[in-house]
Specification:
By secondary structure, the protein is an alpha/beta fold. The protein is built from ten helices and 17 strands. Helix 4 crosses helix 5 and helix 6 packs across helix 7. The structure holds pyridoxal-5'-phosphate (PLP).
Amino acid sequence: MERPSLESLETPAALVDMTRVEANLRRVEAYARQHGLKWRPHTKTHKVPELAALQLRAGASGITVATPHEAQVMASVAEDVFLAYPPVGAARLERLMRLPAHVRLSVGLDSREALEGLSAAARRAGRTVGVLVELDLGMHRVGVQGPSEAVDLARQLEATDGVEYRGITFYPGHVRSPVGSQDTVLKELSARLEEFIDVLSGAGLRSPVVSGGSTPTLWRSHEVVGLTEIRPGINIFNDRNTASLGACAWEECAYSVLATVVSTAVSGQAVIDAGSKALAKEEGLAPGGGYGVLLERPEVVVRGLSEEHGLLELAGTSWRPRVGERVRVVPNHVCASVNLHERLWAVRGGAVEGAWAVTGRGWGAP
Ligand SMILES: Cc1ncc(COP(=O)(O)O)c(C=O)c1O
């Protein structure tokens, strides 16, 4: 494909600033190395194997996925894949078992039913799948509720063919406070994790892998006692939520949606061609509300969204855009926006460097 100029791109277009991506990867790799943590980025954020390959070249020890289709797509570049999602259902299991034999697969689960289905599928496929027992450390989404349940499941795992107990996993998705205000919640989480680890090891169950972490808690992961591996996803691109929590600087936001002003007819606002089908209608954590802000003018908020229209509020700015002008929007939650785009454009210093198909979207051909 011939490289188009940034000016000629049809909007809305998802842009990735490669200088910023590379800096974000260097920073997380250095942090993980400094604290003796493995870094297994969650690729659900970008869903692009070329970007997973970049993360692996930058020092990631393996990757995380949320769906079997993501696992299939990422298997073209990654040999060590963790499915951080309960592997329940025949179709899901069948797709997982179709991963190339050389892929070292592990999954997180919290039930006997999931374990039985997985072990039966693994035996049929002649594979051994690693399992991390999922713990609920406060998010209350998935995860066993107490240490004795974790011991029961780990023991059952050890007695079952086709699967191998590799450790424990959790996701601190309930921690959505600014980085500087996470002391109490992280102390509680760390104490609870230690309790799980102690009870498991008291029962003779060593947990070589203790996998956890998110982007909001990323830079405080070393405070979580016993953690061996971090799984940030958003951090490769960052977004408005992440910046508003102080988990990245504004200059570390690498993803934006290029949009064109299509109307200024209604006073006090400008309308862009990026609506909910390009930005995602995700409520955010930033105090100013709305669905995103302009990269170059963060005081300008996307106040409303229809499917193809984004409404920029102009009350807080002296900027008066003209029809045809282009802007870049940083969405509240980058993963949800990426998932709406067929293609990501790699840009550097104002020039388009390349493009990637977002091949990890959807569920793949049956
Ligand atoms: C299980 C799991 N691990 C890791 C992550 C990555 O966290 P973040 O999205 O904050 O980067 C997520 C995000 O949804 C997740 O669900």
